[in-house]
Design brief:
FAD/NAD-bd_sf; eight-stranded mixed beta sheet; oxidoreductase; FAD
Length: 551
């Protein structure tokens, strides 16, 4: 067996994922004890290659982790100087007054950043402290100890044939063992899913909820640029049919980040999230900023939006879940990076105390307690009802109720609503195609809006074809036999990269399901939204997928 060929390496802490949570944990561990052996494994070709975020950064996390980040040259330079909230109709908009917004929505003191570049800088800080950071190392399997605790991961397996057999250049990878293993894979991590199931970590949690975030970077005319301006919009084109909204952030160098997040609990299976994003750019308020400019990058990523009540238990025998593997995004603020950093630090501090006491492989219960009762819990608890209210009452009424709830908690420190339940998960929320009208989307014009495949080329995505497909079907017959007649096979539309197609003969007969795995930008939407829960996303070979520059 190939597993017997694997060598192993021993560490104090093994960290999967070089995002803000994993890197914060690594840095904090070495700050607490420079002699600890810490390794960070990243599936992207380089640190930052798979990082996609809006992003307006609340600096509370980085302030605590590296207080002198400015002196150390962190790429956190563009302070927010203007905050706009717009309610869009098809041809116009209404500016919502800032004073009506709950105080937690204020972006004063925050920064517009590329989190990909922030993570690249954080990796340099970690390496300077002695952390080993290995990009291009996908972690494909978990390794358990004699008592059922998580002991390590398998990383760096290469060279399997498409049928799963070992190719001529097969490399079995290496087992990396840790006294504790941190999983900071981001949203819907493949290993995190396994751990949550194995230890039943979600038994006391509400269902997880997600959105699909799509983002482009544009270079615009200098006269259209206003460095430091932050604009969020609600309303058109989604209207009241689905939850979601946009962001438009003016970064430096005459660039803007434009993006759209659509809640994945939408009911109409004919909805085409990517095309909603493209249509939104034609709104007069958005088009006037982008006209005459050019798009330079594109990407997509699922976003956690379940909030406080959807958090699974974050500690388990031998390790911990960090950041978006737990689901720490503050939905109304559209911010999670500060909580990811704080979670990484909290896990590091709990592990340090355990190691100092001679423990290993047990449960870091102090971490889970800190996550819920400390700064992260205090950030998430007051906004916990916004997402479920949007889901139950629609975006307009949900926004009003959520706003009232946030204001009430600001003043009185408790909610009249208690904790509202989410109800169905996002896959179960999908309605039958026969109950909804198809949506006719305008054709992209190639100037403001673009077809999916053209845009995917701006994500620098690449996968070797001679490997097993990393998008696995539980039953290969379900897409055509079930999803097509019942749901008009929504995978054709919910995927923001055109991975899934239904092909037919010239006369429209003989439908068949095709997976273009080489297009995949690792957003995980298919793993979440497929109405039959038939698709499982697993990691491809290390270094593959998107290569985001400044996302």
């Amino acid at each position: 067996m190939s597993e017997n060929m694997r060598e192993s390496m021993e560490y104090d802490v093994v960290i999967v994922g070089a995002g803000p949570a994993g890197l914060s944990a690594a840095i904090r561990l070495k700050q607490l004890d420079e002699n600890l052996d810490v390794v960070v494994l990243e599936k992207g070709s380089e640190v930052g290659a798979h990082i996609l975020s809006g992003a307006v950064l609340d600096p509370s996390g980085i302030n605590k982790l590296i207080p002198d980040w400015k002196e150390k040259g962190a790429p956190i330079n563009v302070a927010v100087k203007e905050d706009n909230f717009l309610m869009l109709s098809e041809k116009g908009s209404t500016k919502l007054p800032n004073f009506a917004m709950p105080p937690l929505m204020n972006n004063h003191g925050n920064y517009i950043v590329s989190m990909a570049n922030v993570c690249r800088w954080m990796a340099e800080q970690a390496e300077a402290l002695g952390v080993e950071v290995f990009p291009g190392m996908a972690c494909s399997e978990l390794v358990y100890g004699e008592n059922g605790e998580l002991k390590g991961v398998v990383a760096g397996e290469f060279g399997k044939n498409p049928d799963g057999t070992e190719g001529s250049g097969y490399e079995p990878g290496m087992e990396l063992h840790g006294k504790y293993v941190f999983l900071s894979e981001g949203v819907r991590g493949s290993l995190s899913k396994q751990v949550i199931a194995k230890y039943d970590l979600a038994k006391d949690a509400d269902v997880p909820k997600f959105g699909l975030g799509m983002k482009e970077i544009w270079e615009i005319k200098p006269e259209n640029h206003n460095e430091g301006e932050v604009t969020h919009t609600l309303g058109w084109p989604l209207g009241n049919e689905a939850g979601g909204g946009s962001f438009l952030y003016h970064i430096d160098n005459n660039q803007v980040y434009v993006g759209y997040i659509i809640d994945l609990n939408y009911k109409n299976p004919h909805l085409f999230p990517y095309m909603e994003f493209q249509r939104w750019k034609h709104h007069p308020d958005i088009a006037k900023v982008l006209e005459g400019g050019k798009r330079v990058a594109y990407g997509a990523r699922a976003v956690t939006k379940g909030g406080f009540q959807s958090m699974p238990k974050a500690s388990f025998p031998g390790g911990a879940l960090l950041g978006c593997s737990v689901g720490l995004v503050n939905l109304p603020r559209i911010k999670g990076n500060h909580n990811a950093m704080l979670s990484g630090m909290a896990a590091a501090e709990a592990a340090h105390e355990a190691l100092k006491a001679g423990r290993s492989g047990d449960e870091l219960t102090a971490y889970d307690t800190e996550l819920r009762e400390g700064a992260v819990g205090k950030d998430l608890k007051p906004v916990r009802n916004v997402a479920p209210m949007n889901g139950k009452f629609g975006p307009k009424i949900g926004m009003m109720l959520g706003g009232f709830d946030m204001w009430f908690q600001t003043i009185f420190k408790f909610s009249l609503f208690g904790t509202v339940k989410h109800g169905k998960n996002d896959a179960e929320s999908t309605g039958k195609a026969a109950d909804y009208a198809p949506i006719n989307y305008p054709k992209p014009d190639g100037k403001l809006s673009f077809d999916r495949l053209t845009n995917v080329s701006f994500s620098a995505t690449n996968h070797a074809e001679e490997q097993p497909c990393h998008l696995q079907l539980r039953d290969p017959n379900i897409p055509i036999d079930v999803n097509l007649p019942e749901f008009a096979e929504p995978a054709q539309r919910y995927c923001p990269a055109g991975v899934y197609e239904v092909l037919r003969d010239d006369d429209g007969s003989n439908p068949r399901f095709q997976i273009n795995a080489q297009n995949c930008v690792h957003c995980k939407t298919c793993d979440i939204k497929d109405p039959s829960q038939n698709i499982t996303w697993v990691t491809p070979q290390g270094g593959e997928g998107p290569n985001y520059p400044n996302m």
